[in-house]
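Pasting as-is:
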Amino acid sequence: MQYRRMGRSGLKLSAVSLGAWATFGERVGRSEARELIAQAYAAGVNFFDNAESYAHGEAERLMGDVIADLRLPRDAYCVSSKVMWGSVDAPRPTQMGLSRKHVSEACHQALKRLRVEYLDLYLCHRPDPDTPVEETVWAMDALIRQGKVLYWGTSEWPAEQIAYACRVAQTHHLHGPSVEQPQYNLLCRERVELEYAPLIAEWGLGLTVFSPLASGQLSGKYRQGIGADTRLGTPGYEWLQRQLSAEEGRRATAIERYVQAAQRLELSPAVAAIAWCLRNPQVSTVLLGATRP
């Protein structure tokens, strides 16, 4: 396994890591989750990504139980949570968002579900238009000073909002964001390579990128249709099908050309797509979503 610094921080993450979105607590049960985490850890993976909203908190609960069952040494792995949408159906106003109250409450709830005393990474899952950025920065700084969080960051925030959060932290001598978690793959490049480039150069943020296969499209497995055992075929993810079908014409042509090129080179399209993400030196780690070892 290769390890990379998370931006300018001293934290070293495995080049590939394991995420829980759309798998843990949904398509992956306890025995499968145990096998996945055990195999990933044995291969050198040291970062396991999660969020309060994944399977309404069940993904974190399952991951926490499995890691505790495997007795992984706490100083040998990193775990994350993300805050924004809450962990319950139809959340009340104080059960979602990036207010000081929810940021703090969600952190403590994630600690219980993950069965840890601190979060290595705590990310703001999306921007919150109803909460001042200043309030969120102060809330994250407080959690770091309390020892509940080591590093905080954002996910899919516009560059100007991230830069503003960095300036607020710098002005008030607070702990600013250290990491951004964007989508990044051969079909989705602009935000990482153009929008975030000046931001990374100035503030030294790390990137924990997700969806390297564009929800499985770059593996080539959807060329003959959507199977029931795939992510796009999973009940509850029809919204993802609609989102991807909106760009189907352009994407289908690009995917077909890519898969054929990989095959001519005798490469697995999926492996090549992940390796392509890792060719970007600004990428700290590539998050993989797996349902089978």
